[in-house]
Amino acid sequence: MADQDRKGPGRPRSARVDEAIVEAVYDLLSAGQSADAISIEAIAAKAGVGKATVYRRWPNKEALFIDAVTMMKGSLPEPRGESVRDDLVMLLQAMKNKRMEQYGRVTACLLPELVKSAEMHRVYQAAIEPRRNVMRQVLQRGIESGELRADLDVELTLLMLSGPNIAQNMLKWNPNVPSEGFAEKLVDAVLRGIAA
Amino acid sequence: MADQDRKGPGRPRSARVDEAIVEAVYDLLSAGQSADAISIEAIAAKAGVGKATVYRRWPNKEALFIDAVTMMKGSLPEPRGESVRDDLVMLLQAMKNKRMEQYGRVTACLLPELVKSAEMHRVYQAAIEPRRNVMRQVLQRGIESGELRADLDVELTLLMLSGPNIAQNMLKWNPNVPSEGFAEKLVDAVLRGIAA
Fold first, then answer.
1. Which residues of A touch B173 (CB under 8 A)?
2. Do B80 and B90 meet the contact criterion of CB atoms below 8 Å apart?
3. In order of start, what are the domains of chain B with their CATH numbers?
4. pLDDT of the residue at B3
5. B188 has a pLDDT exceeding 90
6. How crowded is residue B106: how many other Cβ atoms within 10 Å of its Cβ?
7. CA dist A120 → A67, A94, A196, B156 (Å)
8. How far lies B170's CA from each of A105, A125, B68, B106, B178, in Å?
9. Nearest C-alpha in B relative to A184
10. I need a surface site. Which of A70, A139, B118, B193 has the fewest CB within 10 A?
11. What is the predicted pLDDT for the residue at B4?
């Protein structure tokens, strides 16, 4: 699927139909329905198309969900490469875009699906790996520039930056942490450490 | 419910029945069923009791799930109070107990429920707050002892320690981070920071 076909008012009708169907998946998941409980009929009805229109585009529900996860994750803006701190803040902020609350909920609703299906877990990993890799490159550059420790555990650091984000977006794990300024505070705290 | 009644071979039959019913909830959730899709009938069948036996103990499915979440979280061991680093490692390791993989999956399966129900989110928060508070007290003690920064953001730090744990337990978010030695590595990295 060519993503550039999906943008702007001039995109072809078929791309708009694809979008409506994927949006219907998000809407139903966001409303709290499990992936299991959502039928192609319900998706088609929500999108305002016929069931056959869905099946012409995706052979089954799993294939549709794969595309939905991949499109949901989207791409990240290019890091500027001037300051590791600023790039990390920018990347965390970009993950928390205007639809993040909805998407965080969607991810939460996909989890039971991920538990059940090794294929869905691979799909999820495939969808997040390009995003993880953008951050990985920022960290590698920081080691080379001397902004970060030479002995940095890059994979653990990815998790230290993303894990708190995930826990807040999906679970609102700690209601005492304000979302205002969250990315800056997290990056600065991870950079300097908590030891005296 | 008196938790001490539930341990050992001498506990009363009614406690064993309670346990079997709650275990049935875990089993069904772990198998990937959404909380929505699980019926009292299915729980009773899995536990090997009659439906009436479940209803005698819990008025409805939500009440049963509340007890299941609370019992799942359990209590944490008492920090020794000698080293903040060692206490934090101990607490993170205790969260990753022998049943953590199952429980991580259970939490994942409860998420759609949490999204839908403000009451379930309150239940989840009520279940985790005592555990969060044990860690909070360790951090406060570390500030007082001078082991941690005087200006520490305690609430953010709770999230920095727990978020990566949650993301790995529930999503295996970064398969490149080994679970061997994870608690030590995370605590040490959070303590010293990633900046050069």
1. 128, 159, 162-163, 166
2. yes
3. 9-70 (1.10.10.60), 75-194 (1.10.357.10)
4. 41
5. yes
6. 22
7. 11, 24, 43, 31
8. 15, 13, 18, 9, 15
9. B156
10. B118
11. 41
Indicate yes or no: CB of A189 within 8 angstroms of CB of B153: yes
- Per-residue model confidence as pLDDT tens digits over B15-58: 889 999 999 988 887 776 777 788 999 999 999 999 999 999 99
Q: Three-state secondary structure along chain A?
A: CCHHHHCCCCCCHHHHHHHHHHHHHHHHHHCCCCCCCCCHHHHHHHHCCCHHHHHHHCCCHHHHHHHHHHHHHCCCCCCCCCCHHHHHHHHHHHHCCCCHHHHHHHHHHHHHHHHHCHHHHHHHHHHHHHHHHHHHHHHHHHHHHCCECCCCCHHHHHHHHHHHHHHHHHHCCCCCCCCCCHHHHHHHHHHHCCEC
Secondary structure of chain B in the HEC alphabet? CCHHHHCCCCCCHHHHHHHHHHHHHHHHHHCCCCCCCCCHHHHHHHHCCCHHHHHHHCCCHHHHHHHHHHHHHCCCCCCCCCCHHHHHHHHHHHHCCCCHHHHHHHHHHHHHHHHHCHHHHHHHHHHHHHHHHHHHHHHHHHHHHCCECCCCCHHHHHHHHHHHHHHHHHHCCCCCCCCCCHHHHHHHHHHHCCEC
Take residue B189 and report the two structure tokens written for it. 């990295």
Q: For the complex shown, is ipTM > 0.85? A: no
Q: Do A172 and B132 touch (CB under 8 A)?
A: no
Spell out which residues of chain B touch residue A32, defining contact as CB-CB under 8 Å: 112-113, 115-116
pLDDT band at A2 (very low <50, low <70, confident <90, very high): very low
- Per the CB < 8 Å rule, is A146 touching B196? yes
In whole angstroms, give the CA distance from residue A6 to residue B60: 46
Q: Model confidence over B105-153: pLDDT tens digits?
A: 676 666 666 666 677 777 778 778 888 999 999 999 999 999 999 999 9
